[in-house]
Amino acid sequence: MISNKSDFFNQVFQVVRLIPEGRVTSYGAIANYLGAKSSSRLVGYAMNASHAQKEYVPSHRVVNRNGQLTGKHHFATPYLMQDLLEKENIAVNKDTVVNFKNYFWDPCFEIIL
DNA sequence: TGGGTGACCATAG
DNA sequence: ACTATGGCCACCC
Predict the structure, then answer these.
(1) Of A30, A72, A96, A103, whose CB is crowded by the most CB atoms within 10 A?
(2) What is the value of pTM for the model shown?
C-alpha cells in the first residue's frame, strides 16, 4: 500500500519518489504496480503534473518501455532530462538509456509489500 | 454530462 | 522490419 488516498496521481508520484538514484523504470511498470497495467498513459499524464507537486518527483528516472526519453520535451529544457540521468551515471545515447535493462527498476519486484 | 486528450503498450497486417 | 490501430481511464474543459 503506497498511499491511503485513492488518488491515482498521488500514488504515481509516491512510486516515482521510491526509484533509487542511478535506476530507471517505465510508465508501464508503474501502472502495473498500481494495478492499472493498461493505463500507462495515465502515468505519463500524471508526470505532466509532477513539477507542480510540493515534494520533488524525479520524473527523469521514468522512461518508456524502450528506454527512450519520450518526456524530455516536458522538462524545463529538452536536454535537462538526459543531463539529470547522466549525473546519476546513466548513459544516454540518442534519447535512449544505454543498457536500459541493466538499470531497470521494477516496483513490483523491488518494493517489499 | 460528455467528449477530447495523453511523457504508453501490445497486436495485427 | 515498419506502420497502423485500438484500448485504456483519470483529468480538464
Answers:
(1) A30
(2) 0.89
